[in-house]
Structure formats: structure tokens, C-alpha cells
TrEMBL record:
Protein's name in the database: UDP-N-acetylglucosamine--N-acetylmuramyl-(pentapeptide) pyrophosphoryl-undecaprenol N-acetylglucosamine transferase
NCBIfam families assigned: murG, PRK12446.1
Keyword Oxidoreductase: no
Domain Glycosyltransferase family 28 N-terminal: 6-144
Record-linked InterPro entries: GlcNAc_MurG, Glyco_trans_28_C, GlycoTrans_28_N
Membrane disposition: Peripheral membrane protein
GO biological process: carbohydrate metabolic process; cell division; cell wall organization; peptidoglycan biosynthetic process; regulation of cell shape
GO MF: UDP-N-acetyl-D-glucosamine:N-acetylmuramoyl-L-alanyl-D-glutamyl-meso-2,6-diaminopimelyl-D-alanyl-D-alanine-diphosphoundecaprenol 4-beta-N-acetylglucosaminlytransferase activity; undecaprenyldiphospho-muramoylpentapeptide beta-N-acetylglucosaminyltransferase activity
Reactions that this protein is recorded to catalyse: di-trans,octa-cis-undecaprenyl diphospho-N-acetyl-alpha-D-muramoyl-L-alanyl-D-glutamyl-meso-2,6-diaminopimeloyl-D-alanyl-D-alanine + UDP-N-acetyl-alpha-D-glucosamine = di-trans,octa-cis-undecaprenyl diphospho-[N-acetyl-alpha-D-glucosaminyl-(1->4)]-N-acetyl-alpha-D-muramoyl-L-alanyl-D-glutamyl-meso-2,6-diaminopimeloyl-D-alanyl-D-alanine + UDP + H(+)
Length: 357
């Protein structure tokens, strides 16, 4: 069988990269030569080079919904990005481009379309992001995590497939996790994940509530790059980490309850691992409000408790954690009822169909 090239793209935050990694890990290396196109500086560069996938950096502009002088510069950056991407794609001649969203994907998709290379899109959120809104018309197929997302795309080429979760997350070892964290083997663990980039308001609320939390839990705090608090380094039962890679599987295996932003990948991971979660979605003032909708959908299905950031104080935080703890069993029962699709296997199969060897 002749090897063919598949190009993945997606970036800006880990949520646009980790699902790609999940799929790439399961493609047959005898069949596929995998390449990645991302921005020159984004988090995707670090995450992809770390796993030794050839990485092609291109120029990329931020897509803003508001009027800004930077928009003008960004138009040129995007045009340059299309030219950069065309150069890479011409050389690689992929059978298919798989895009996970984020602004860097727009020039890649446009370049692919101009070269008649089929593009597959995956949308993780309940409503499409700006990049996927633009990109959808160029895509041959569109896959979504949420059932509710399908209605935003043309029905003829859209399929609800769920969230591609890296298989390694299901192989964690709780005891190893506790050992790695330096935690006691018996006391319950609360893990706080403030989105892949961290979340300032969640970070400060957790730290404020820490004395109360530590009465009940040991706390793992994934606080994002540059957000460590050195004054809390020696607090027993509290482990702060900027970002964890392969250790996450063991940490989650050891985790009893989760506090999280409403990023789609994270909440689908916790759902699949049956971890009762408190979601504090990114507020509308800092986003397009997609995490609020993700969170509401999860709350409606009984998978999560939701606290809006505007309501977040030390008191409401502790109140919601108490509620989560007392309703954990019911939430887990709802999670067990959730539809189980092997999203990764399905997407791998879809990509394999593009192999013309
Ligand atoms: C601020 C922002 O725009 N966030 C968006 C971004 O979220 P963000 O990048 O925060 O992504 P998600 O919460 O969806 O996923 C985070 C990913 O990072 C991983 N992880 C996180 C912390 C860590 O220490 N180690 C680690 O591996 C998680 O396991 C998960 O796979 O993309 C998501 C998917 O489109 C959207 O729903 C979010 O609204």
C-alpha cells in the first residue's frame, strides 16, 4: 500500500488541538504520513512538535467580530496565510485536510479548496465558531460533538459524531495519580481545570475558598501558564500546575469531582470519565457565549451543575461544590446513560476512506 498524506489543522487554544492529536494517534502509520499546519507561535506548535509530527507554521490573523485597526493588518496576514498554506499543500499533496477550528484554519481551508483538496471539519461547540462558520461552505463533510450543533450546518454534509477523546485518558491509574501528586490515598480529590489557558477568576475563587475546600478535599489546580501562586507552594493537599500533558490521565483517574470552564473537549472528557462537574462557563463579556450554551446543554441532561461567572463568589462556589458532592451519585448515573459512540474510530474510518492506495 502506498503511503498518502493527511494534513491536520487547528489552533489558538488546546481545545482546537487535543482532538486532532486523539485522531492522529490512531491513524495507521503504514497508510498515512501525517502533517500539521498551524500558526507560527500558537499553543498548537508546542503540542504538535512535542509528539514529533512535522509542523508547518503559517502566517495567521485573528478574526474579530468588532471593528479594529488590527483588522486591516489581519486581512493581509490571512492573505499571506493562504499563500503560505498553498505552498505547503502543493508540496504535500494530501488526500484530505482535517480541520478542528480556530482562526489559523481559515487560510488553510481556503488554500485547500483552491487546490481541490477535500476538507473535513469538526465543530466541538454547541454553536459554530467564526472560523468554522466561514469554513463550512468549503468543507466536504462537517462533524459535530453536540446533537444541537447540527442545525447550524447544511444537513446534506453534516453528521453528529461526538467528541474525539484521546484514548490515553481512559487508561489512567488512580494510585499512580495520587502518588505523582504526593496526595494521601484516602481523601477525595477535587480537580480544577480552568480551560487550557487558565481562568483568572476561577483561579482566585479557588484560592480564596482553599481553607474550606481542604477540609473536605485534596485539590489539584490546573491554573494555566504564568498563573502559579508561589505563596501557596507549601500548602498540604493543594497541588497547582500550569498545564499537564500525559500525567492528566492518572490525575483524572484519581479525581472524584471536577470544577471546569465550559470548553467542549474538557466537558466531554469528564462526561466520558463519569466525573461529576461544576461548570463555570466563560462569560459573554469575554467570548461569544458558546461555553454558556455548552454548559446549559450539559446541565439539562443532568451531567453538570452550572455556576455563571457573574454569580461566582467564595460563598456560591462552596455552596455549589457542596451540592455537587451530595448529587454526585445521581450525576454519575445520568452520565452512564449518555450515548456512547466510538468517535475516534468513526473519524479514522472516514479519513481512511479518502486513502486512494
Ligand atoms: C477560551 C476559549 O476560547 N475556549 C474555547 C477552547 O477551549 P480550550 O482550549 O480551553 O479547550 P477545551 O476545554 O475544549 O479543551 C482543553 C483541552 O486541553 C486539555 N488539557 C487542559 C489542561 C491541562 O493541563 N492539560 C490538558 O491536556 C484537556 O484535556 C482538553 O482536551 O476551545 C473549545 C473547543 O472549541 C471551546 O469550547 C472553548 O470555548
Amino acid at each position: 500500500m502506498k503511503k498518502q498524506v493527511v494534513v491536520f489543522t487547528g489552533g489558538g487554544s488546546a481545545g482546537h488541538v487535543t482532538p486532532n492529536i486523539a485522531i492522529m494517534n490512531e491513524l495507521d502509520p503504514q497508510k498515512w504520513d501525517i502533517h500539521y499546519i498551524g500558526s507560527r507561535k500558537g499553543i498548537e506548535k508546542e503540542l504538535i512538535t512535542k509528539i514529533n509530527i512535522p509542523y508547518h507554521g503559517i502566517s495567521s490573523g485573528k478574526l474579530r467580530r468588532y471593528i479594529d485597526l488590527e483588522n486591516v493588518k489581519d486581512v493581509f496576514r490571512v492573505i499571506k496565510g493562504i499563500m503560505d498554506a498553498r505552498r505547503v499543500l502543493r508540496k504535500l499533496k494530501p488526500a484530505v485536510v482535517f480541520s478542528k477550528g480556530g482562526f489559523v484554519t481559515v487560510p488553510v481551508i481556503m488554500a485547500a479548496k483552491s487546490l481541490n483538496i477535500p476538507v473535513y471539519l469538526h465543530e466541538s461547540d454547541l454553536t459554530p465558531g467564526l472560523a468554522n462558520k466561514i469554513a463550512q461552505r468549503f468543507a466536504a463533510k462537517i462533524f459535530t460533538s453536540f446533537e444541537e450543533a447540527a442545525k447550524f450546518f447544511p444537513s446534506t454534509k453534516t453528521e453528529v459524531v461526538g467528541s474525539p477523546i484521546r484514548r490515553q485518558l481512559f487508561e489512567g491509574d488512580a494510585l499512580n495519580g495520587r502518588r505523582w501528586l504526593g496526595f494521601d490515598v484516602n481523601r477525595p480529590i477535587l480537580t480544577v481545570m480552568g480551560g487550557s489557558l487558565g481562568a483568572k477568576k476561577i483561579n482566585s475563587s479557588v484560592r480564596e475558598a482553599l481553607p474550606e475546600l481542604l477540609k473536605e478535599f485534596q485539590v489539584v489546580h490546573l491554573c494555566g501558564k504564568g498563573n502559579l501562586d508561589s505563596s501557596l507552594e507549601t500548602v498540604e493537599g493543594y497541588k497547582q500546575l500550569e498545564y499537564v500533558h500525559e500525567e492528566l490521565a492518572d490525575i483524572l483517574a484519581a479525581t472524584d469531582f471536577v470544577v471546569t470552564r465550559g470548553g467542549s473537549n474538557a466537558i466531554f472528557e469528564f462526561l466520558s470519565l463519569h466525573k461529576p462537574m461544576l461548570i463555570i462557563p466563560l462569560p459573554k463579556s469575554q467570548s461569544r457565549g458558546d461555553q454558556i450554551l455548552n454548559a446549559q446543554a450539559f446541565s439539562k441532561k443532568g451531567y453538570a451543575v452550572v455556576l455563571e461567572e457573574e454569580q461566582l463568589t467564595k460563598e456560591t462556589f462552596i455552596e455549589q461544590i457542596d451540592y455537587l458532592e451530595s448529587h454526585g451519585t445521581v450525576i454519575q448515573a445520568n452520565m452512564r446513560e449518555a450515548t456512547k459512540t466510538d468517535t475516534i474510530a468513526y473519524l479514522v474510518e472516514q479519513i481512511d476512506r479518502m486513502h486512494k492506495g
